[in-house]
Specification:
The protein has six helices and 19 strands. By secondary structure, the protein is of the alpha+beta class. The chain folds into two domains: 135 residues, lpxc deacetylase, domain 1 (Ribosomal Protein S5, domain 2, 2-Layer Sandwich); 149 residues, lpxc deacetylase, domain 1 (2-Layer Sandwich), CATH 3.30.1700. Strands 1, 12, 13, 14, 15, 16 and 19 form a seven-stranded mixed sheet that branches. A hairpin with a 2-residue loop joins strand 13 and strand 14. Helix 1 packs across helix 2.
Length: 292
């Protein structure tokens, strides 16, 4: 018996799958690579899912945005296909797609990393709305979490509880004098995400800059696309007083979209891409068990 996956096509409460109405493009630079990149977002058929296609590689195969394809979570989320072709820092674009409930889309990308844009998901969300959203004649398969799932790492954790909807409660704790403890509770909806979460940008710290550069990361970061803090102050005008925790929720939305549509209450304290993906993998294992 399939307990977790709702497959009844006649159930009027089920949402229809969505794609975009027309192709649309955007160019910029990657946050970590610093490389120039252009993406094209294209409509896709029912059950296609979200896939990335590297146009800078001859005869490249698409990379499905699935948690089973995650290969790295250092400072960002990386996905790759069976032959090792990869894209990284996919979480902001994935979050925008998830916020608008877009299930099927092909992302053509001319470099290994999408544009950082302004460091948030808002540019991508606006781009998708410009392209238009089209409902498709098939229902979404939504996984209703049957039990509690959790991941712990010392004082950091993220867990998912059964819940009739999708909700995220995140607590961020940072010793910077302007940050401290921030908490945000979001019942995820398209309207709430557009105004409260999508505009929240990536946070960075001046003391990390040299270390990141030595690691080959943050090469495209600037005050234009990262909210930067020095030891005592913030160098970038904030969009929200609690922009850090809102962006953490944005990352959770993007990372957990890799497991598909779920019904759950996510509760996190100091979570990271690594913990988000570990949770997504545990949910995926449950999903596979329930689907048998």
């Amino acid at each position: 018996m399939k307990v977790g996956i709702r497959l009844n096509k006649e159930d009027k409460s089920l949402r229809q799958q969505r794609t975009i109405s027309k192709a649309i493009a955007y160019a910029g630079i990657g946050l970590h690579s610093g490389k120039a990149v252009e993406i094209r977002l294209l409509p896709a058929a029912i059950d296609y899912g979200i896939k990335f296609l590297r146009t800078d590689i001859a005869q490249a195969q698409p990379i499905s945005a699935k948690v089973t394809n995650v290969t790295d979570t250092l400072r960002a989320t990386t996905i790759a296909n069976a032959v090792g072709t990869h894209v990284f820092t996919v979480e902001h674009l994935l979050a925008a797609l998830a916020m608008l409930n877009i299930d099927n889309c092909l992302v053509e990308i001319s470099s290994p990393e999408p544009p950082v844009a302004d460091g948030s998901a808002k540019v991508f969300l606006d781009l998708l709305e410009q392209a238009g959203i089209e409902e498709q004649v098939a229902s979404v398969q939504e996984f209703c979490l049957p039990e509690v799932v959790a991941v712990y790492d010392a004082d950091k954790y993220i867990c998912a509880l059964p819940y009739d909807g999708f909700r995220i409660s995140f607590t961020s704790i940072n010793n910077h004098p302007l940050l401290g403890t921030q908490h945000y509770d979001l019942v995820v909806s398209e309207a709430a995400c557009k105004t409260e979460i999508a505009p929240a940008r990536t946070i960075g710290f001046m003391h990390e800059v040299e270390m990141l550069k030595k690691m080959g990361l943050g090469l495209g970061g600037s005050l234009e696309n990262v909210v930067v803090y020095d030891e005592k102050s913030v160098l970038t005008p904030l969009r929200f007083e609690d922009e850090l925790v809102r962006h953490k929720i944005l990352d959770v939305i993007g990372d957990l979209s890799l497991v598909g549509k779920i019904k759950a209450h996510i509760i996190a304290v100091k979570s990271s891409h690594a913990l988000n993906i570990q949770l997504a993998k545990k949910i995926n294992e449950l999903k596979n068990l329930e689907g048998k």
